[in-house]
Design a protein that fits this description.
The chain is an all-alpha fold and 286 residues long. The chain has 14 helices and no strands.
């Protein structure tokens, strides 16, 4: 069967009125929001710490302004890893399932954040400290790149055809929730501790607490199943692979059929993201 015919059948599967019980959809939305909240908590926690703490902990030998720039540079590295994570997790999510990849991304993000909380500073292990910090930040960005798209997608696949966009919008609420948690915890600790105590060990507490949040997120996320839409599409794709043939790689199919839509969406996010992170991370340094 031609790729065009398979694509048309996939669209028909998405359009079928396979309405799930409202309780099931709400459960999936809650599971997705729990995961995205934890992952964005980890991501934004790093951003605020990079503005306030990391220049003194991991780059103490630099001029203060240079230290801030170096710390924010490690924050920026996460954005390099995010699209790569999105491509890898998106590809294997289409093959292995959304749920499995969402669990992996949550564990990856949480483990990296927890290890940052344990990472000795420059005064203890020297240049190895910022190098390890960069590696952990790359893991964070890679995991988040796979998380957001997968969380939105599994909710959209569970949602009824008439309100698929409405249900798919809910995981995005995890972004501000995660940021409020991260900023709130750091602000509270900075308020009740002396500056020396906060820079010595207080800032590590929110990073270590990520382990608790990850366990909660995993418990909720493991309670859901793959969507009927995904299972039907997967069965359809396997049934239409010719003997000895291979399925087309989903990422190649997307870029081949919808290059304009992909690059338009990517470009539209640049202005919004640059402004957002200037106000929520860079401005904190002032």
């Amino acid at each position: 069967m031609s790729a065009a015919a398979i694509d048309n059948e996939s669209r028909e599967i998405m359009a079928q009125p396979t309405v799930q019980p409202r309780s099931t959809i709400i459960k999936v939305v809650a599971a997705s929001m729990a995961g995205t909240t934890v992952e964005w908590y980890d991501f934004f926690l790093y951003g605020v710490a990079a503005a306030l703490v990391f220049p003194k902990v991991f780059f103490p030998g630099s001029d203060p302004a240079v230290g801030v720039l170096l710390a924010l540079g490690t924050f920026a590295i996460g954005f390099i890893a995010r699209p790569i994570g999105g491509l890898v997790f998106g590809h294997y999510g289409d093959i292995l399932g959304r749920k499995k990849l969402l669990v992996i991304s949550l564990l990856m993000m949480g483990t990296a954040t927890f290890l940052i909380g344990l990472l000795p500073g420059y005064a203890t292990i020297g240049v190895a400290a910022p190098i390890i910090l960069i590696v952990l930040r790359l893991i964070q960005g890679f995991g988040l790149g796979g998380e957001w798209g997968g969380a939105v997608l599994i909710v959209s696949e569970y949602g009824d055809p008439a309100r698929r966009g409405f249900w798919a919008s809910w995981p995005q609420a995890g972004v501000p929730l995660g940021q409020l948690l991260a900023n709130g915890l750091l602000a509270l600790l900075a308020l009740v501790q002396t500056e020396d105590a906060f820079l010595s060990w207080g800032w590590r507490i929110p990073f270590l607490l990520s382990a608790v949040l990850v366990l909660i997120g995993l418990f909720i996320r493991l309670s859901i199943e793959e969507s009927p839409v995904f299972r039907a599409a997967q069965a359809n794709a396997q049934a239409n692979v010719e003997p000895g043939g291979k399925q087309a790689m989903p990422i190649l199919e997307v870029f081949r059929k919808y290059p304009r839509e992909v690059f338009t969406a990517m470009g539209a996010r640049f202005a919004e993201n640059v402004s957002y992170y200037i106000f929520t991370v860079v401005a904190v340094t002032y």
